[in-house]
Specification:
alpha+beta, Gyrase A, domain 2, 2 domains, five-stranded mixed beta sheet, four-stranded antiparallel beta sheet, 27% strand
């Protein structure tokens, strides 16, 4: 028990004693003591009827003085408690409690189910630790003095509510004895102590798990920082490889663009492939006395080609048309227009006059496919 109290002093602060009388309340924290006069509404023990308001007033006083009470012990005024001195044979503590249970009701003015009573060894000079421990005296036949202390359960309940509103833990309720000394007893019921012990255990476990969570969080943070440093080191080592990777991706993009251009060129070549054989045949069959001025075709709509030029005579035009018609590169060669020129022009090569103009229309055979050299 002493170990538990010391642990509570370390984690929850020292035990604060509240001595409550009719006119004032005295607060003792360690060696420091403060006394406050009660407001008129709380005097003459009226604070027992208004525990919440009493706690609010005391909280304001403590806050003004920057004090806080975490654990408290309430000392009642003798006027709130019933005392009865009796003489009984020497008994152990268990025997005292048994006697109080069976015989104590005849000395206590309160109903048994509405009060809390205790019995302790008593001497006119006070209570000693040896007497309170219940050890036997050498003279067992001698009658000993005992003190019966009784208080109404309602008082304890209101004091418990007062401590709850005060946001403090009520650990002990005792009283000032007839000799004006604090009696070494606790008027809180054993059940309350059991509940408080369970609460302490839960709070202790809560504190333990909070510290455990903080420790695990700190450990996780340290590991994360270490992994981050390792990752930065790996990134530094892989920087040359990343530059190679970037160049490779850029080359892949360039290759993709080149592939698109090649596809377009192939499409254009496929469309213009048919004109190669036709133009080659025209250059082979055109007479020396003919001169081409224009070659026109709509390759996207039809395979027809139109030739316009000049010749020395109409016979040369017919000879040129016949050669194209007999070739396998053309189909359906027709003379669309022919006639004499009013102003003759000279052949630049042979220095001869070209007096006839012509216009030939021919269709390119779709089955002719010759590769370009």
């Amino acid at each position: 028990m002493n170990i538990m109290r010391r642990m509570q002093d370390v984690f929850l602060g020292n035990l604060t004693t509240l001595c409550m009388t009719e006119e004032e309340i005295q607060i003792r924290q360690g060696l420091k003591s403060s006394c406050y006069e009660l407001p008129s509404a709380f005097k003459n023990f009226n604070y027992l009827h208004r525990p919440e308001e009493m706690a609010g007033w005391l909280l304001a006083v403590l806050q003004n003085e920057k004090k806080r009470i975490r654990r408290c012990k309430i000392v009642l005024d003798p006027g709130q408690v019933f005392f009865q001195k009796i003489r009984l044979p020497e008994m152990t503590i268990q025997e005292q409690n048994n006697w109080l249970f069976w015989e104590g009701s005849q000395y206590i003015p309160y109903p048994a189910n509405s009060c809390i009573s205790k019995i302790i060894r008593w001497k006119e000079t006070g209570v000693s630790e040896k007497d309170f421990s219940g050890e036997s005296e050498k003279n067992s036949g001698k009658l000993c003095s005992f003190l019966i202390v009784a208080v109404q359960s309602e008082v304890i309940e209101r004091l418990t509510r007062f401590a709850h509103f005060l946001n403090t833990r009520l650990e002990e309720v005792t009283v000032i004895g007839p000799d004006q000394n604090i009696l070494p007893l606790n008027l809180l019921s054993a059940e309350s102590w059991k509940e408080r012990s369970i609460t302490w255990c839960y709070q202790g476990l809560t504190v333990f798990f909070v510290f455990l969570s903080l420790a695990l969080s700190a450990q996780s943070l340290i590991q994360w920082k270490r992994q981050e440093l390792v990752w930065e080191d790996r990134k530094t080592q892989l920087a040359p490889l990343l530059s190679v990777k970037n160049r490779y991706l850029e080359n892949k993009k360039v290759e993709h663009q080149i592939g698109k251009y090649r596809t377009k060129i192939q499409q254009i070549e496929q469309k213009n492939q048919k004109f190669y054989a036709a133009l080659k045949k025209i250059s082979e069959t055109i007479p020396q006395t003919c001169w081409l001025e224009e070659i026109k075709s709509d390759a996207y709509k039809s395979n027809n080609i139109e030739l316009k030029g000049f010749a020395g005579s109409a016979g040369q035009i017919l000879d040129f048309a016949g050669k194209l018609k007999s070739s396998r590169e053309f189909s359906g060669v027709n003379v669309a227009e022919s006639g004499e020129r009013l102003d003759s022009i000279k052949d630049r090569v042979n220095n001869r006059a070209l007096t006839a103009n012509f216009s030939l229309r021919a269709g390119i055979s779709p089955d002719i496919k010759e590769e370009r050299p």
